[in-house]
């Protein structure tokens, strides 16, 4: 079973959206919780808000962190 991690940023609506998504895919993916960066995943989803400046910055940082983890083969299977 492929592994999925979701990073949720932004408001509580994003958290609810993530919970709904994870419920829908729970039978198809092994869900790796946030904070378990040492466990390789096949997919990383960043669920965020694009309306607030701080959220945009936080989102960009999260994506760049994920790219660095992938380059170092720490977060994704390569």
Tell me about this structure:
The structure is a single chain. With about 80 residues, the protein is α/β, with parallel strands linked by helices. About 40% of the residues lie in helices and about 15% in strands. The chain contains two helices and three strands. The chain has helices at about 10-25, 55-70, and strands spanning about 5-10, 30, 45. A three-stranded parallel β-sheet has the order 2-1-3, with helices on both faces. Strand 1 (about 5-10), helix 1 and strand 2 (about 30) form a beta-alpha-beta unit. The two termini are about 15 Å apart.
Could you name the key traits of this structure?
78 residues, 3-stranded parallel β-sheet, alpha/beta, flat
What is the strand and helix layout of this fold?
Layout: E1 3-8, H1 12-25, E2 30-31, E3 43-47, H2 53-71
Parallel strand pairs: 1-2, 1-3
- The quaternary structure here is single chain
Quickly give the structural class: alpha/beta
SSE run: EHEEH
Portion of residues within helices: 40-55%
Shape: flat
Radius of gyration (CA) equals 13 Å
| Spatial arrangement of strands, main beta sheet | 2-1-3
Quick structural summary:
By secondary structure, the chain is α/β, with parallel strands linked by helices.
């Amino acid at each position: 079973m492929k592994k999925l991690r979701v990073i949720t940023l932004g408001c509580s609506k994003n958290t609810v959206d993530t919970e709904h998504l994870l419920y829908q895919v729970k039978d198809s993916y092994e869900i790796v919780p946030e904070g378990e960066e040492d466990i390789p995943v096949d997919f990383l989803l960043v669920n965020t808000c694009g309306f607030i400046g701080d959220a945009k910055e936080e989102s960009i940082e999260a994506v760049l962190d994920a790219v660095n983890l992938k380059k170092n083969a720490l977060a994704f299977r390569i």
